[in-house]
Design goal:
This protein is of the alpha/beta class. It is built from five helices and five strands.
């Protein structure tokens, strides 16, 4: 099973662009089976449903983890993944997930929408 984090898809405001990028990146992994980890992005959910890909949603638990909730959530996602696809929306959160993956030597792509 190939486990990939996909975040920031909604930021493109262009599902076709998002879908095409994901298909191009993931098509060689389809035979292995794919599990997508995400933070709840609607485009990611739609993509997973369209291609019948298993989806695991990680949420930030602010009541439990307080100001560290995003970091705790990101660490949980990154513990067990094989790659990361980030659609850059100009926020620190997406760049932070990308940088955390790179620090852990997890293959990561940061995709910019023009």
């Amino acid at each position: 099973m190939f486990r990939v984090i996909v975040v920031g898809g909604n930021s493109t405001n262009d599902f076709e662009f998002f879908r095409t990028k994901c298909v191009n990146i993931l098509r060689n992994k389809a035979n292995e089976g794919i599990m997508i980890y995400t933070t709840g992005d609607e485009f990611v959910r739609k993509f997973a449903q369209m291609y019948r890909i298993d989806l695991k949603i990680f949420t930030a638990e602010f009541k439990k983890d307080g100001k560290n909730a995003l970091s705790v959530r990101n660490n949980k996602m990154l513990e067990d993944c094989d790659a990361v696809i980030c659609f850059d929306n100009g926020t620190r959160e997406i760049k932070y997930i990308h940088d955390m993956a790179c620090e852990r030597h997890i293959p990561a792509r940061l995709i910019h929408y023009n």
